[in-house]
Amino acid sequence: MGSLFRSEEMALCQLFLQSEAAYACVSELGELGLVQFRDLNPDVNAFQRKFVNEVRRCDEMERKLRYLEKEIKKDGIPMLDTGESPEAPQPREMIDLEATFEKLENELREVNQNAEALKRNFLELTELKHILRKTQVFFDESVPMVYKSTSTHSSNKYRRYLQMADNQNEDEQAQLLGEEGVRANQPGQNLKLGFVAGVISREKLPAFERMLWRACRGNVFLRQAMIESPLEDPTNGDQVYKSVFIIFFQGDQLKTRVKKICEGFRATLYPCPEAPADRREMAMGVMTRIEDLNTVLGQTQDHRHRVLVAAAKNLKNWFVKVRKIKAIYHTLNLFNLDVTQKCLIAECWVPLLDIETIQLALRRGTERSGSSVPPILNRMQTFENPPTYNRTNKFTKAFQALIDAYGVASYREMNPAPYTIITFPFLFAVMFGDLGHGAIMALFGLWMIRKEKGLAAQKTDNEIWNIFFGGRYIIFLMGVFSMYTGLIYNDIFSKSLNIFGSHWHLSYNKSTVWNNNYLQLSPATSDYEGTPYPFGMDPIWQVASSNKIVFQNAYKMKISIIFGVLHMIFGVIMSWHNHTYFRNRLSLIYEFIPQLLFLVVLFFYLVLLMFIKWNRYSAKNDFPMTEACAPSILITFIDMVLFKSSKAPGKDCNVHMFAGQSFFQTIFVLIALACIPVMLLGKPIKIMQARKLANEEVQPITGSSDAEVGGMSNGGGSHGGGGEHHDEEEMSEIFIHQGIHTIEYVLGSVSHTASYLRLWALSLAHAQLAEVLWSMVLSLGLNKEGWLGGIFLTVVFAFWAVLTVGILVLMEGLSAFLHTLRLHWVEFQSKFYMGHGYAFQPFSFDTIIENGTAATGETE
Q1: Where is this chain compositionally biased, Gly residues type (predicted)?
Q2: pLDDT of amino acid 145
């Protein structure tokens, strides 16, 4: 079979590259993406490999590019992404790239430092401006404090003015001047108060005020005023709210203490002249400097913006180039050097069909490098298990991902993905059958397919959207198949389509139909035309409220078992392809044949009974082949397995559906029972016999004497036999494993058949939910009349549409998807699929760049 049904044939090759051509050749292989290199230096530390310095240089360039990217995103500058992938630069171009990135980084850092210094100066001048404005108000209010107090009354008034009350305890007060201050404050002497002014963060102000009160014992006077507009922190650009404060005190000791407290609370102190004229002069100078700083800051920001805009045009291409260089040198570190230090030796897995393409790429790399020595690609013989490589395209990629999520296929094992393309959406549609809901899903998938280029170029980090977009072809097929099964069920938003006209006719008058809830139409009379509805279910069942569910239950339950048994038989047949391909004769005879017989004689016979019952029994047939004499399939199957004789379903009815049924059923059960010991013991016994025969054949090969026989036997056992037993399991383990597999298959055949009843259960639940939404939501709006009814219908329809999409399409669709996934992973793939392989991971620039971009997005 082709690679669609099995993984690609792989070859282990040895590659010899000239040192000067190695970089260009590996670059060409990276663009090709068809070679998986092996590490030939597993014991060598990553920091001791040949090209570790080049990898470090690439890491440093990536760091500089990430710094540029961070600054560009901070300014909101769009980065040009042409979608093209530039070629990996030559090694000599690394120096130019490093110089360019170094120049850009240094220039940007210098601009940022200058801008930060200017912003810091601007912040200081702005704070000083607010201090000069606010403190003028404070000094105007404190005029009585700076003059001499000549009377006792004014002295008491002055002392009361300098008192400071604690907000926490209003009864506790202290005077600004102590006893020494009072004694010193004699007539004819001026009282000299010192002060400091500054700015503090508004959130620290209450704690700052309490600390001043407690540390200075109330002998200071604090005034503060808020700065209305926030100030920008030059370090991180945050907006900070601050307040201006001024503290009056007396004495150098209090001055020292106040300054230490200000320093502890990170308050900024500024010089503030005492004279009003000096303050006005300083304020004018500050305003002039602020205007000059605004001009310089604007020019600095413009220069920074120009630098970032120029860098943004090339940043994506620079990232691609650096990551390609880094990937090449990282791959070259996996190679070995020969003794002459002039040739690099590599080992790699390559697809057998692509060896010529790889050789052409190597020749292109050699020509680019100007080397005269051609590369050598030799195929090696190996007993290692090759990696599994399944070629995919944008259509099959999602289906292959579903299979690989269960486990990567063993090398050259049958690949279930091609069959899953049909069976997965079909089994989903059996559970999700509704023409309307399927159309919504199909249109959503079709929209993503039509817009896939634009949507793929957006490269969003939204994980849920990426899952939907990656499975767009699965969603589209699930929607299309659901539309088909919806037509079969004749179900569209819980209603039916009368396309061809019903094949049932009413023989009652109108009043009887409206007033009698228990009317029945008999297929044995003229009520039924005798031919079924051309496609799907007859729309008459939509109005059969009493027995609609009964009829649909029987129909959907039977088709679930039919599809399930056919699906499992197909899985067992797939195992035949594996056994014949790998020439596993024992598994073919002692596993495949009894497994298929067991499944066919029991469960496929059950399916045949359904078709026989549908074909032989009808309401229009003569007795005893009428519907009243139709036996129960389930009871018949249980009696068959228990070797019980069936009972007639009614008086004078036939016990069996066809002649010889009892005999055939007994034979089938005996065959099924005989298959169990064959599956259980056949393969282990044959393996044991083969090993015993192999041990006996060793004896004649040895020498004639007993000593020689003993010596040769021991030697052979340690050399050949020991290797065999090392690879093979012990016989006890083989018997145990075979027993487990047999029990699992026999019991699993029953449980897996019952598991397919989920097709019936979810289909029934989906149909009933749709009917509930129609009858309890939308029908309320349809029953209203007039213009108010139109408004009410619009609101109700919007509510019904949201519930339909949210519950019936999304939630029910996800539930049906998971159940379908389980049917494929457990019921289908367990019959033939081992999934013990490991994926082929070629050296590909596209994969490396995609993963690098994703990793950069996550770190941010």
Answers
A1: 712-721
A2: 41
